[in-house]
Design goal:
The structure holds three protein chains of three kinds.
Chain A: H1 2-18, H2 20-33, H3 36-53, E1 62-67, H4 71-82, E2 88-93, H5 95-103, E3 110-113, H6 117-120, E4 126-132, E5 135-140, E6 154-158, H7 163-174, E7 182-186, H8 189-197, E8 203-207, H9 208-213, E9 217-222, E10 233-237, H10 243-251, H11 254-257, E11 262-263
Chain B: E1 2-10, E2 16-24, E3 27-31, H1 38-46, E4 53-56, E5 59-60, E6 71-74, H2 86-90, H3 100-105, H4 121-134, E7 139-143, H5 151-168, E8 172-175, H6 179-185, E9 188-193, E10 196-202, H7 203-208, E11 214-224, E12 227-230, E13 233-236, E14 246-252, E15 257-259, E16 270-281, E17 285-291, E18 296-300, H8 301-307, E19 314-319, E20 324-329
Parallel strand pairs in B: 3-8, 3-9, 6-7, 7-8
Antiparallel strand pairs in B: 1-2, 1-4, 4-5, 9-10, 11-12, 11-14, 12-13, 14-20, 15-19, 16-17, 16-19, 17-18
Chain C: H1 3-31, H2 37-49, H3 52-63, H4 68-76, H5 84-109, H6 112-120, H7 125-153, H8 157-162, H9 173-180, H10 187-220
Helix pairs in contact in C: 1-5, 1-7, 2-5, 5-7, 6-7, 7-10, 9-10
The chains are: A alpha/beta, B alpha+beta, C mainly alpha.
Chain lengths: 267, 332, 223
């Protein structure tokens, strides 16, 4: 008799545990029984998470992706543009890197590239060819006299996909100049300047406009234009939000030519 | 060995050890309750606590490091090097040479290739002792070497220490809070209480008068294993295997029972018919001195009253064989 | 040498070079009472909190070929900036804190009383270090080495600044992956490099665990 009673009690306990309603009420009462301090802490944490995940609101700034060489030019133009009340956000990098980012979904309104072919694989609203440049070899100023074009010990180039890197290789091949075994690659022409300035290589291939920005470096050689593909900076309008900036670029080639760029329409 | 020590140590928790002692003994005991300063004093002697003045046999050790003092330090926790075999542990000291005889005496010669993880507690302690002795120390220091062992292992360990003491001839300092270990193995004892020496002197006298419960020391001759003739009676005693010849024994006054009638079918192995010689009554206890053998028994005041004990009364003293403590061989 | 070979050579060199330094630093932190310990602790933790690019920049300032240190090293035939050694230094610096912390932890776990017993038995501080501390700290040294190696393997920021991307000399796996990002059809190459990285790490973990197991068995063996 006693055994039967004990089994009955155990069974009822088990069924109670498995009953979902009972399970819920047990846990709810557990939560409610927590001391106030613990509950407040959890609440603060939950609110913080919500707060952090909510992105700030406001009108989106005009996003411009520009080839690294155009840093000074586009910075000045965007500062001027902001005076009209619209905010801008500019990203400078190698054209190939920026193109990849756009292809992978980065939000850009205007894309200024040193390699126009990138625009072909994008959905653009409009485009125009804007500037050109010259390809040069820079060396530290002190070493300018001792530089031997056909006897370089080390060389800094932009990565193979970067326009400047591609053009450099083409130029060397065309002129039958051997590329030294010790070649160090930079992510953009500005990176190449950095490497040469820091002594990472004896010489580096950049655009003439880039060389002008580095006072400690000097141009040791300028590549003849026929030795490499034509250097063309094209502007692509990717989204309507960029229209005003796009028009500004078209209207103000002198903002670039004053830094050494060549107006392509005058070429 | 003549030891001179002057120590003044303060600890952040308020404990102060102030000791200024000089004595001569081959084996010294340091006794006292836990927290009294025994380990601190030991640290001053071994050198892990610097700043104390320590002069051993005329040599000033005060400025010497632990390494220079050539002390064989055996801690309560054996602290064997876990990544080495027993043999490597024994041979660890740069001063160690042959360990054969030591290993044999300590009965660990069959364990040489084992690692500490595979040793029993007693085996570990013996290895620790062997390691200390093999380092050819000037002084052997043992910190509570028997604490934590059960009764039988403890007696075995004490006899081992006896043999070591005789075999190696190295002076020894033994720290313990148990009286029978100290009395059995040492000649001179210092009692530390609350950071200062409360009593010093020959071991038996120092401990007899204070916290020890041992009141009965006697000697006898082993007749056969487990049987010792002590004067007029033969006692059944638990002895280690290799005990032989004249031995010293002791027994706590509290462990002896009195019975007016001869006990019937009792588990105690020793029942001694004797007479009451003297009764000392105190506030809570009564000490009863017996004759032949001359034993002191402790009973409660109530028991004394209920049994109605009087001087001259015939009485039976009942002692369990396991209550008789083997102190060691009797030195002639 | 291809990127995988370079990553391995850089990783091994970095770990081997920092091994004695890390052991020394951990010993200094755990087993001495020097007042200089907090300073050392901060210095060791710096590479952990500084952005790798900043680390690279600071290292470049130190090892610049135009500076004293850099030119001396160049004269000695061991140039760092923009050379293979630069990749090694970058990997070594970022892995160092992990290395030291791991060894510190295992040294801390060693019962200090064991070292005192060693001294009482007559061993000098140096002997105690080599016979007791080092063998017992071995598991921590091993796992620290594995961690440092793995961290160095993945280092990008400091390497690209200090050593630059020089194929055959400093182009470790992360740098090679970065370079292939912009190439059309570079996905296969990247996938292969990523797979190689994962494989190296898995092998690293396995080897480290095997050694730890061996050590454990050694401590407990009956022989």
């Amino acid at each position: 008799m006693a055994i039967a009673a004990r089994i009955a009690v155990q069974n009822s306990k088990l069924s109670l545990m498995l009953d979902p309603a009972h399970f819920r009420t047990r846990n709810l009462s557990f939560i409610l029984k927590q001391p106030a301090r613990n509950r407040v802490c959890v609440l603060i944490w939950v609110l913080s998470c919500v707060f952090i995940s909510c992105s700030p609101t406001g009108p989106r700034p005009v996003t411009i992706f520009a080839a690294a060489s155009l840093k000074e030019t586009i910075s000045e133009l965007s500062n001027e543009f902001e005076k009209s009340g619209r905010k801008t956000q500019v990203q400078f990098d190698a054209s190939s890197t920026l193109a990849r980012q756009i292809q992978q979904g980065a939000l850009a309104d205007v894309f200024i590239t040193a390699a126009p072919e990138w625009l072909e694989s994008m959905r653009i609203l409009d485009r125009f060819d804007w500037l050109s440049n010259r390809l040069v070899i820079v060396v530290p100023l002190n070493d300018k006299s001792s530089f031997r074009l056909r006897n370089m010990k080390s060389l800094a180039l932009a990565n193979e996909q970067v326009p400047a890197g591609k053009y450099a290789r083409a130029a060397f091949a065309h002129l039958h100049i051997p590329i030294p075994e010790r070649t160090i690659y930079g992510s953009s022409v500005r990176d190449v300047l950095f490497i040469v300035a820091k002594g990472g290589a004896e010489a580096g291939v950049v655009y003439a406009t880039d060389a002008a920005t580095a006072p400690e470096l000097g141009v040791a050689f300028t590549f003849p234009e026929e030795s490499h593909p034509r250097i063309v900076y094209s502007v692509g309008l990717l989204r309507p939000e960029g229209k005003e900036f796009y028009d500004l670029l078209q209207a103000r080639p002198e903002a670039a030519t004053k830094h050494g760029f060549i107006d392509i329409r005058k070429q | 060995m003549i030891l001179e020590i002057e120590a003044n140590v303060s600890r952040p928790n308020g404990f102060h050890l102030i000791v200024e002692e000089k004595w001569s003994a081959h084996a010294t005991g340091i006794a006292g309750p836990s927290g009294g300063g025994k380990t601190t004093l030991l640290n001053c002697i071994t050198g892990s606590e610097r700043g104390a003045r320590v002069i051993v046999d005329g040599e000033d050790w005060s400025e010497w490091s632990m390494q220079e003092r050539k002390i064989g330090y055996v801690t309560q926790d054996p602290l064997l090097f876990p990544h080495m075999t027993v043999k490597e542990n024994l041979l660890y000291s740069p001063r160690a040479s042959s360990i054969g005889p030591i290993a044999e005496m300590l009965r660990i010669d069959h364990l040489l290739e084992r690692r500490p993880a595979n040793l029993s507690g007693g085996e570990k302690r013996r290895v620790a002792l062997g390691r200390a002795i093999a380092s050819q120390p000037r002084l052997l220091v043992l910190d509570e070497p028997f604490t934590g062992l059960d009764e039988i292992l403890r007696r075995e360990a004490m006899s081992v220490l006896h043999s070591i003491k005789q075999w190696s001839g190295v002076p020894m300092i033994l720290v313990s809070h148990l009286a029978d270990e100290i009395v059995g193995l040492t000649d001179w004892t210092i009692r530390l209480e609350n950071g200062s020496v409360s009593k010093r002197g020959p071991s038996e006298s120092v401990l007899n008068e204070t916290e020890t419960r041992i009141d009965n020391y006697f000697s006898g001759i082993i007749l056969e294993p487990g049987l010792v003739r002590c004067g007029p009676c033969d006692l059944k005693v638990i002895l280690p295997h290799d005990a032989d010849g004249p031995v010293r024994l002791a027994c706590y006054a509290n462990d002896i029972l009195l019975s007016k009638k001869p006990p019937d079918e009792i588990s105690a192995r020793n029942v001694i018919p004797t007479k009451i010689k003297l009764i000392h009554g105190f506030e809570k206890i009564t000490l009863v001195d017996l004759e032949a053998p001359s034993l002191r028994v402790l009973v409660t005041r109530e028991a004394n009253r209920d049994l109605d004990l009087v001087t001259g009364m015939s009485i039976y003293a009942i002692i369990k064989a396991s209550s008789i403590v083997y102190l060691g061989p009797a030195e002639n | 040498m291809n990127s995988i070979q370079l990553s391995l050579s850089v990783g091994f060199a970095a770990t081997l070079l920092t091994l004695p330094l890390a052991i020394l630093a951990a010993w200094f932190l755990e087993k001495t009472d020097s007042k200089a310990r907090p300073i050392l602790q901060i210095l060791i933790t710096l590479p952990l909190v500084l952005p790798p690019v900043v680390i690279g920049y600071l290292l470049l300032a130190l090892f610049s070929p135009s500076g004293k240190v850099g030119s001396t090293l160049q004269w000695l035939g061991a140039p760092v900036a923009f050379h293979w050694l630069g990749a090694v230094v970058s990997a070594a610096v970022v892995g160092f804190p992990l290395f030291v912390t791991s060894i510190s932890l295992s040294m801390r776990e060693i019962d200090a009383r064991l070292e005192r017993i060693s001294a009482s038995l007559g061993a000098s501080r140096l002997q105690t270090f080599f016979r007791i501390t080092l063998p017992l700290a071995w598991p921590g040294i091993l796992s620290g080495a594995a961690l440092a190696f793995a961290r160095g393997l993945g280092e990008f920021g400091a390497t690209i600044i200090l050593a630059g991307r020089i194929p055959g000399q400093t182009e470790t796996i992360p740098l090679a992956i970065y370079a292939e990002l912009d190439s059309p059809g570079g996905e296969t190459k990247i996938a292969w490099l990523v797979f190689a990285s994962i494989a190296i790490c898995v092998i690293l973990i396995l080897v480290s665990r095997i050694f730890q197991g061996l050590h454990k068995r050694k401590m407990e063996s009956e022989s």
